[in-house]
Amino acid sequence: MNQSTFGHIGPGDLSLFTDRYELTMMEGYHDTDHVPTATFSVYFRRLPPDRGYAIAAGLEQVIDYVETIEFGESAIEFLTDQGFGDGFLSYLESFEFTGEMRALPEGTPVFPNEPLLEVTAPILEAQLFETLVLNQVGFQTLVATKAARMADVVRRRGDGQALVDFGSRRAHGTDAGLKAARAAYVGGFDGTSNVLAGERFGVPTHGTMAHSWVQSFDTERDAFDAFADAYGDDATYLVDTYDTVRGTERAVAATADRDVRLGGVRLDSGDLIELSKDVHGIVGDAGIVVSSGVDEYFLREFFDRGGVATAFGPGTALTTSKDAPDSGVVYKLTAVERDRASSPSMKLSPGKVTYPGRKEVYRVERDGSYRYDVLARRGKRLEVTGEPRLTTVFENGSCVYTPPDLGSIRERTRRELETLPPRHRRVREPETYDVRISDGLETVTRETEHAIRERER
Amino acid sequence: MNQSTFGHIGPGDLSLFTDRYELTMMEGYHDTDHVPTATFSVYFRRLPPDRGYAIAAGLEQVIDYVETIEFGESAIEFLTDQGFGDGFLSYLESFEFTGEMRALPEGTPVFPNEPLLEVTAPILEAQLFETLVLNQVGFQTLVATKAARMADVVRRRGDGQALVDFGSRRAHGTDAGLKAARAAYVGGFDGTSNVLAGERFGVPTHGTMAHSWVQSFDTERDAFDAFADAYGDDATYLVDTYDTVRGTERAVAATADRDVRLGGVRLDSGDLIELSKDVHGIVGDAGIVVSSGVDEYFLREFFDRGGVATAFGPGTALTTSKDAPDSGVVYKLTAVERDRASSPSMKLSPGKVTYPGRKEVYRVERDGSYRYDVLARRGKRLEVTGEPRLTTVFENGSCVYTPPDLGSIRERTRRELETLPPRHRRVREPETYDVRISDGLETVTRETEHAIRERER
Predict the structure, then answer these.
(1) Among A111, A306, B335, B406, fewest CB within 10 Å belongs to which?
(2) CA gap A64, B394 in Å, rounded
(3) Model pTM?
(4) Prediction ipTM score
(5) Best of A170, A174, A196 to mutate (most B CBs within 10 Å, chain B)
(6) Cβ atoms within 10 Å, residue A437
(7) What is the per-residue pLDDT for A4?
(8) A36-67+99-144+334-455 is classed in which CATH architecture?
(9) Which fold has domain A147-319?
(10) Which class would CATH give B3-144+324-350+389-424?
(11) Chain A 100-159, residues with CB within 8 Å of chain B CB atoms
């Protein structure tokens, strides 16, 4: 048994993290010398159910990917075995990105049809990125959005409760566990249970006590005594192993007997809302951590019913985005060079319409609130006073953007969400935010569709 | 910008892929010298909705993890900063597994309360593994199950259609994309679009054509001509960019004009079932690949309505297990050494009952069909003629098990599923398979619960 049976994915492996057809297309473009400059746009066709917005996340990982991608010896060897030709493989051996990338900064609310990312490059370069970019941006955006919804409920209804990601065990693999912790922090969480996310991204890590600790002692009281001895002041006791109320009383007694301060208790089963009130009567000012089945819908009910807590530990619902595990984000060709000029392009597949061409997103704010967005053609002067939102990330293949630190991104999310009217932030049936299509873009869309219908008649 | 901003997880990093509370517990066990031998069991409390079985997967990755886990210099440094003590960190520096692990081989159908995995070891060793084991086994089992459901529909209703995983872009991160390809193959798929899964696990890779190829030429016909020139015989043409039927006619014409054999066409939008019949009339014996929104429910409808295809490319539904993105698999302490003898243990948290003690799973087959399972105490002779299913994987910390190759695992899944009566394999409301609790285990469960209630009175 060698180390590789786990399936680790190192920096040199991301070049092969792509759908085979991307390489097939690339080889075709390469071998027929058909390499027009093309623009691909990453966007939501529609937001997942009950989402009034999404929070852009994952750009930093895309930047690192584009900057470090390489086809090493073993990758080339494998592709040779798979039947790819020598000419194309020589090209891959010296692959590097030469194009432009623009993006919405992480932490920005995004709405349907707005580019999260726009890549303009020789078509075979841009083609390669599709799979990995969707995989990273789609997932992190999904989790940042889910986290932002929970953080928003807590900010509006709570009194400063902490939100900590407890979901690594339920995440879909290791990368998901790590990136969910990052994306949750972007969305407004305060920390994670995942230690590696602390080491890798500086997300604050938190942890309490497991049922196994309690079970490994003869009695719950013995377990709490030992915990108080080992951890002293401010530890948190898991109290639901046998009976939540009695467990809480024992945690209070164990800490009192040892003269250490009770940090708090964690509730993990039963009617968490009623129990939180009962337990509050016992622990007073000490912490109450609620950790089973927490999501934005639960949180709303929790506050409606007068639950009492100092922290929440969402798990499954957060890291799998359980009610909407699929972002639906797509990576579509929207422009291609014809006769040396960029020409808008779109598919006509039913129900899957694309706005063609390179774009800009303007966000119009009045009296401290976002009113509507305008989706427009890039580089056309617009008669609106909104702020253009896409930032240039790569120019001529070089990164010209320094990603902010994670704390600043998190702060941006908070600030932006506060500027978005609450009716778009409801957790059920939010009102649709208005994304207006500029007159110019409407015209180009009609013209492009007409031109295609003529050509393909 | 350095390479680590992507967040790669190498072999040396998995030790930190754990919830902080696992390390907190471990430190407590270590520092108070409370290190009883404990047994943890990994199992489903209940199967996800509409699942009549699950297919065990991910064991090979767990083995690799346990064999290679280490706390290197940077991990220790980070844990020092996080406040863990020197004594405990010295222990971690030389951490190795000394215990036993038993498991259901990959490709085995598993039912609620049956151990997918059972770890018996000094409690602090077994505690560490919880997060990563659930993360890997939970996810792969989820995807292998989803894949098996689709493969089962195709085997029963189809005529040898291939199933290829097209879902890497929708998977939750890179590890999920890679492991979903592996797990789908375990479940009965024939291949994946993910090139890295080919390189890493030998899963056959497949790919066709993208919309961008078609859009990058002046007309669809130009695009197909160029594709026929570049790829010759047996290529597959994506025909829905503008109009599926016309696109199909153009693919036929382009290949005929060039005297190359049409491999097939791919349909990716519209009423795929009706279109597949229309297209079949045009392409005859050539392939028809259907690739949008494919899952087991779609497949059943596809065959009900007389759709025609040679291959299916499920994506999102497969890699996110969209209708059930959470396996719900747990890792629970079921026995702990007291007075030098192993003593069964369980939580009493409402709705979360555990069968205590170390276990064996017997599967009773009659006339070529599985009739019921018996969940029993380990090492107690049982009055059933079923075959014990748990295999020893680690003994005294050494791996004593050689995982079969992936093809053999896939074959096991197929064989096992054919032995499971069809009423348990229905994709909606399957009949519950009977898992009987042995008399001995029933008694121990009652006694353990009684003993805890007495102790904790």
Answers:
(1) A306
(2) 39
(3) 0.97
(4) 0.97
(5) A174
(6) 16
(7) 67
(8) Alpha-Beta Barrel (3.20)
(9) TIM Barrel (3.20.20)
(10) alpha beta
(11) 123, 127, 130-132, 134-136, 138-139, 142
